[in-house]
Amino acid sequence: MTTDLVDLPPRFGMDRPAFDKLEGRRPGELRAATSVILARDGAEGLEVFLLQRADGMAFAAGMSVFPGGGLDDADRTALADGLVDAGAAARAATSWGTTEDEAAALLACAVRETYEETGVLLADAAVPPPGTRERLAAREVGLRDVVGHLAADRLRPWARWLTPEPMPKRYDTAFFVAAVPEGQEPDGATSEAVGAGWCAPARALREWDDGDRALMPPTWAVLTELAAAPDVATLLASATGRRPLPVTPSLRPGGERVGIAVPAFAIGAAR
Length: 271
Fold this sequence. Notes:
This protein is of the alpha+beta class and 271 residues long.
């Protein structure tokens, strides 16, 4: 696999004055996070569920994103609490190159954030009582109070992106793919979003090209790869056993603009 860098479209760059303000600053702390690519088969092929973040958000304001968010302390006890069984934790640890405890925490975070932001519950459980989702988001209850066991094998590893060092807010984000369970439908009813819906990856990219949709580099790169999958079965098969390599975009100062480059494998240019 080549590690050659590929320049992303110039729109992803930043003005030189904005970059200069970052130089010399202490980089933000790297926080573990997850993002879940919910997928279904639509009339024209594979579709994914995208949220449009509210303009007032401190991070990724106005962007179209997959559901997700940062790990919290409760996520880190998922293995000890029995939310994730040892076998699933071991498989996830191999995929992500981390410990079983950390891998179980990623799975718990992915399930929790997906439920909070979309109402889809990736777990072996009946639909919780009304108001449970809101109580979980408010931290009045924990995920262990909502479900007894996570359906961890529904989550397949896809990609891992790290925010570059100069940025004040930095995340080490594990991207999973998951088919929407039968009988469930995501709604995007979260205070963090002002819109949500299903969209074919290729259409989302065309809307970005036309200036009708805002995307961050990781979302754009993931959508670029997803556009090659004709259906959910193919997507899940390609994700099975996948071991995502970490992608940290490189900032390339030059003239009035600072460009961004990533390894070729990050956008499926070489696999």
